[in-house]
Design goal:
four-stranded antiparallel beta sheet; 13% helix; elongated
């Protein structure tokens, strides 16, 4: 059975997030929370088919150089990902400095951020030794489970 305070907290979290629907089952009780959706009506008009002339063929060398795949510059970097859905915070309080910034060295168990979920502050530690190359999310942003938060150059 869900407590009224738990239900109110879940409603508030869903209301403040981008989540549209939440269903939870606990000890035989089932709770479903849905945001009211906007109904949009789209009127489609009939479209007359048009014939478009194909562009002139280009030399093969030009096509190859234009369509050459870009090198993936992040493939050698380690991603620190969110272990849960919540709100991302770079510091322990608005007045405090960030746990880590670009260029900082981290080791396993270095706290890199806080993920707030249901009013619980969960510290997230680095899981690798290396250097922070990029912070991928903004302070106060809602993050999803498995979403990359930091890129780390392993040592």
């Amino acid at each position: 059975m869900f407590k009224l305070s738990e239900i109110k907290e879940l409603i508030k979290l869903v209301d403040e997030s981008s989540v549209q629907e939440l269903e939870i089952e606990n000890e035989g009780s089932r709770l479903s929370i849905r945001k009211p959706g906007k109904t949009e009506f789209v009127q489609a008009a009939a479209v007359q088919p048009q014939v478009i002339a194909a562009p002139q063929a280009q030399p093969a060398a030009a096509v190859v150089s234009e369509s050459a795949p870009q090198a993936d510059t992040t493939s050698h970097l380690h991603k620190i990902v969110s272990p849960m859905v919540g709100t991302f915070y770079r510091a322990s309080s608005p007045e405090a400095g960030s746990f880590v910034s670009v260029g900082d060295k981290v080791v396993e168990k270095t706290t890199v951020c806080i993920i707030e979920a249901m009013k619980l502050m969960n510290e997230l530690d680095a899981d690798i030794k290396g250097e922070i190359v990029e912070v991928l999310v903004e302070n106060g942003q809602l993050v999803e489970y498995g979403q990359p938060l930091f890129l780390v150059k392993p040592e």
